[in-house]
Each structure stands twice: as C-alpha cells, then as structure tokens.
Amino acid sequence: MAKASVVVPEQVGAAAAAQVGCPCPGTTLFPYPPPRAGIAVRRKCLQAAQQLELGAGLRGGWVESMRASSPTHAKAAAALAAGVDEEHAAWMARHPSALGEFEKVVAASKGKQIVMFLDYDGTLSPIVDDPDAAFMSETMRMAVRSVAKHFPTAIVSGRCRDKVFEFVKLAELYYAGSHGMDIKGPASRHAAAKSPPHNKGVLFQPASEFLPMIEQVHDRLEQATRSIPGAKVENNKFCVSVHFRCVDEKSWGALAETVRRVVREFPRLRLSQGRMVFEVRPTIKWDKGKALEFLLDSLGFADCSDVLPVYIGDDRTDEDAFKVLRRRGQGVGILVSKHPKETSASFSLQEPAEVMEFLLRLVEWNRLSRTRLRL
Ligand SMILES: O=P(O)(O)OC[C@H]1O[C@H](O[C@H]2O[C@H](CO)[C@@H](O)[C@H](O)[C@H]2O)[C@H](O)[C@@H](O)[C@@H]1O
C-alpha cells in the first residue's frame, strides 16, 4: 500500500541517463563540477568529502571538496565542458521538474493527507553572501502561509530555530532548527482527534546535553578563524556553521585546516560540509530525516499509509530526509537545484521562485479538489 505512494520517476529517465553514463545512484555527495567535467574529478570530490567527514583532510582534498560546494565553479566547469547539456537533460530525466510533472505528484496524494516539509536557505530564500540577510520575500511568506492553511507544514533548517522563525514569522508552522535537533510546533488538530495525548504542542531537543560544548566550539572557532578575512562563524544553538562564501579561495586550505584542528579537540562533534559552509554538529544519530519521521509521528501519522510527506530542500543535509522517504516508500522528495547533483530526491525545482510556484499550484489544486468534492 505504502509503496504505491512513493513517486519515483527514475524509470522514465533511466534509459536516457544510462546513455550518457549518469552518476552512480546511492551516493549522496554532490558531484560539482557536473559529471561531464570528468569522472576522475567527481571521484576526487567524493573522496575529498569523505576525508572531510573522516577527518583525514589532505590540504588539496579539502579545497577540492570546498570547490565542489561552489556553484560558481560548477558553472565555470559546466561552461568549459562539452556535452553538459546532455548531462543536464539526463539528470532532468532522472529528476524531472515537480512543476512539469505536477499531475503525477498530485496523483500520488489521492486519498492521502499531504504533509509539507520545507528547508529554508536556498529553498524559501535565495542564497546570499550574508547569512544574516537571507530574507524571504513577502510573496513567498504568503505562499507558505496558504500552504499551511491546507496542509500541516514544517520548516526544517540547519539554522537556529529562533533565527529561522525570525525569517519566516509564521506561528502556525512546525519548526525543526539545528538540522532537526530542535523541534517545536503547535498542537495538531489531526493528532488530537486521533489520540488526546497528542493535543499538546511539540518540543523536542535530542542534543540538549551538547549545548555547553557547542558554545565552547563556537568560541574556539571564532577565535581561531578571526585572522582569515571573510570567514564567518554562526552559532546555530545545537550546531555551528563556518561560512567560507566570502573567503578568498587562496585561504580555503588554511580555513579548512583550522576548522578541522579545532573540531578534533571535540571528539563528540563531527564535521561535514554544506553550500560553502562547514557544519559542526553532535555525533548523535539525528538528522533532518529523523526530524521528518518524528514530526510525522507527532502529527499522528505514525505507521500510516494515508499520508504523503512532501519534502523540498537544496542542501546535502536534506538528503537525509530524501533517503527516509525512499526507505519508507512513501512521499515526494524535491531537490532545489539548477545543476545536476547526486540526490535521493525524485523531482527537482530550479530555484526558490519555482518552489513558490509549486506551493501555489498545490494550494490551488487542493482548493479546487475540495470544491469539486462539495458539489
Ligand atoms: O538547512 P538550511 O535552512 O538550508 O540551512 C543550511 C545553512 O544555511 C545558511 O547558509 C547558507 O545560506 C546562506 C545565506 O544564503 C549562505 O550565505 C551560505 O553560504 C549557505 O551555506 C545558514 O547560514 C547556515 O547556518 C545553515 O546551516
């Protein structure tokens, strides 16, 4: 039953993808520059990112991995590489536009309750140099507000929950900050109707014991990176981000080594990489995927086949949620990206403007279906 509700368009594009040797399924690292730039380069990026996770950190490998998270490099490489168009077409065949395949998406929701999960940066707000200025537009806010009127809606972000709330400003939503380690939300009507104990609001912080350690590592990182122009350390409460978007590429190696050196002082913390950012977080087995499952349970949809989670996100940490949807055989994963990336998402959207269009179409579709039902 649940199997039928997962939307997997790969069958459609598998043949096309195979023709041009599209990236290996199952891996989760994003292969910038795009595949056509060379399998060897992709492999290097993959190894470099793995070293980063493991803390091996060869200087060259780190910088390679940092480059891999830069769309500017991806674009430059894409412009140089021949045949990029075919690669892109093959990738799009494997991960078609959620707008282009809108009917397929809504068909999967027949008889099911849609629950919406939205990442923030790069999904609802455009990526900008200054993380404190990543505002979402008023029109996007209105779109999210409308979605939340029709479907239970959660924002799932790497940011500190309070900060992402300051950006979104919608009290009716659920918020999972710090990559899902800080979850808060209002009482759910659906859950309350199913079982009275669920009619309270939600608050879940599985990494609270790490708070003092996060403060410590934040201060250490701030102090250690002070001499590197452009480096910015952001305290996200249960995790820390070290941004290198505004750091001169010549200093990337030094920054990577500095961050790694500091994180090694904290064996219970781990290092990973997002969009031109290092992420430092507790080693606990909790991520955006677990947060998605936790929220579904809190909303009263534990072990339900009549629910369709829709998750939209742009970053590596969102892959944990896409994987959960695949494992459950339930839901729709949508990656926001203009460039081919290895992903467990089924569909794609190019940028936040398309995310907004998709949300508004979903609202309109739901309004019309409800009207039809009433007639
Ligand atoms: O899970 P998300 O909501 O996508 O948060 C992931 C990180 O997003 C932010 O950084 C990213 O967006 C910035 C503003 O556009 C950009 O300058 C930066 O390069 C991106 O990595 C946020 O500042 C981080 O704390 C989040 O972890």
UniProtKB/TrEMBL annotation:
Give cofactor(s), names only.
a divalent metal cation
MF terms (GO), sorted A to Z: trehalose-phosphatase activity
UniProt superkingdom = Eukaryota
Name the UniProt record assigns to this protein: Trehalose 6-phosphate phosphatase
Q: Which PANTHER family match?
A: TREHALOSE 6-PHOSPHATE PHOSPHATASE
The answer, when asked if Hydrolase is one of the entry's keywords, is: yes
Look up the record and name the pathway of this protein. Glycan biosynthesis; trehalose biosynthesis
Instruction: State the reactions this protein catalyses.
Output: alpha,alpha-trehalose 6-phosphate + H2O = alpha,alpha-trehalose + phosphate
Provenance organism:
Oryza barthii
Q: What is its EC number?
A: 3.1.3.12
- Entry keyword Hydrolase: yes
